[in-house]
UniProtKB/TrEMBL annotation:
Tagged with keyword DNA-binding: no
Name used for this protein in its record: Pyrroline-5-carboxylate reductase
InterPro entries: 6-PGluconate_DH-like_C_sf (IPR008927), NAD(P)-bd_dom_sf (IPR036291), P5C_Rdtase_cat_N (IPR028939), P5CR-like_CS (IPR053790), P5CR_dimer (IPR029036), Pyrroline-COOH_reductase (IPR000304)
Organism taxonomic ancestry: Bacteria, Pseudomonadati, Pseudomonadota, Gammaproteobacteria, Enterobacterales
Main subcellular localisation: cytoplasm
Catalytic activity: L-proline + NADP(+) = (S)-1-pyrroline-5-carboxylate + NADPH + 2 H(+); L-proline + NAD(+) = (S)-1-pyrroline-5-carboxylate + NADH + 2 H(+)
Span of domain Pyrroline-5-carboxylate reductase dimerisation: 163-267
Pfam families linked to this entry: F420_oxidored, P5CR_dimer
Keywords attached to this entry: Amino-acid biosynthesis, Cytoplasm, Membrane, NADP, Oxidoreductase, Proline biosynthesis, Transmembrane, Transmembrane helix
Annotated residues for binding of NADP(+): I9, G10, A11, G12, N13, M14
A Gene Ontology cellular-component term: cytoplasm
Protein role: Catalyzes the reduction of 1-pyrroline-5-carboxylate (PCA) to L-proline.
Top-rank EC class of the record's enzyme: oxidoreductase
Annotated positions binding NADPH: N57
Length: 271
């Protein structure tokens, strides 16, 4: 694939992770420019990755073939309107923002735009991201390939065929690290209440979560079967699982994921 000049507009946590992943995967740092409102983050990025930096969004985007829009959803309209005249039908725009739809982008650009919407998650910061991607009709094969390459630099990718499915990706992956953190927080708090010191409690929870996750990754069997293997009939695990299921865990999880999807739709309407 021909190597493109890539500009990141908004160089926060998520965009910073993608830039780091790109450079680590061997993408030439001299082809990457980060633009951010504040200079502090830019200095760190320039030092760590050797990329170009600027506080001038327009300058960054103007010199790029691919523009990654990495600002928060409520800032997006302002940023896009500033860059709208750069939409020449060839330059690719990639959004990582939740709840900002293709219709918003087209309204703010004032025209159809080659745009790929993505929904990453924070484990991208440690190279274990899971990103959903959706391509607008104005994009081509190369646009999809470069977006996929960008997000694979920080983890795995899954393409969806409709924009609505990106809201489902938010529920299953984008927001989902927080569900696991919440569960781990509750376990850590209980471990401390049981008398473990904070360091040990954290390690017990972290290593167990990581071990369970690795088993799902490495063993080609249903997750239900992995659970069954821990659960001796009449044993301790069975009692714990009974307690979770008695409290309606499946329903709680399903309701929580529906709430995330609902909020993504609302956010789109609020813009
Ligand atoms: N945090 C998460 O779990 C996820 C976040 N996202 C999306 O990623 C996007 C960025 O989120 P984070 O990286 O977490 O936020 P962040 O706050 O770390 O990054 C946003 C950056 O944009 C900069 N910025 C603000 N106004 C600007 C402007 N006018 N021009 C240039 N830069 C400007 C800020 O200084 C900041 O560095 C959001 O749209 C969010 O919806 C998507 C998936 C997951
Ligand atoms: O909570 C949010 O709105 C963003 C999108 C997915 C994860 N964080």
């Amino acid at each position: 694939m021909e190597q493109k000049r890539i500009a990141f507009i908004g160089a926060g946590n998520m965009a910073g992770a993608i830039m780091g992943g790109l450079v680590a995967s061997g993408y030439p740092a001299e082809l990457i420019t980060a633009s951010n409102r504040s200079e502090g983050k830019l200095e760190t990025l320039a030092e760590e990755y050797g990329i170009h930096t600027t506080t001038d969004n327009l300058k960054a985007a103007d010199s790029a073939d691919v523009v990654v829009l990495g600002v928060k959803p409520n800032i997006m309209e302002k940023v896009v309107k500033e860059l709208a005249h750069l939409n020449d039908g060839k330059r690719l725009f990639i959004s990582i923002a939740a709840g900002v739809t293709l219709a918003h982008f087209e309204a703010w650009f004032g025209a159809a735009v080659p745009l790929i919407r993505t929904m990453p998650n924070t484990p991208s910061l440690v190279g274990l991201g899971m990103t959903g991607l959706y391509a607008s009709d104005s994009t081509n094969k190369d646009d999809k390939a470069i977006s996929d390459m960008l997000m694979r630099a920080v983890g795995k990718t899954a393409w969806v065929k409709t924009e609505a499915e990106l809201d489902h990706i938010i529920a299953v992956a984008g927001s989902a690290p927080a569900y696991f953190f919440l569960f781990m927080e509750a376990m850590e708090a209980k471990a401390i209440a049981l008398g473990f010191d904070a360091v040990t409690a954290r390690e017990l929870v972290q290593q167990t979560a990581s071990g369970a996750s690795e088993m799902v990754r490495m063993r080609d069997m249903p997750i239900r079967e992995l659970r069954r293997q821990v659960t001796s009939p009449g044993g301790t695990t069975a009692k714990a699982i009974e307690s979770f299921q008695g409290a309606g865990l499946d329903r709680l999880v399903s309701d929580a994921m529906d709430a995330a999807i609902q909020r993504a739709r609302e956010m789109a309407k609020e813009l």
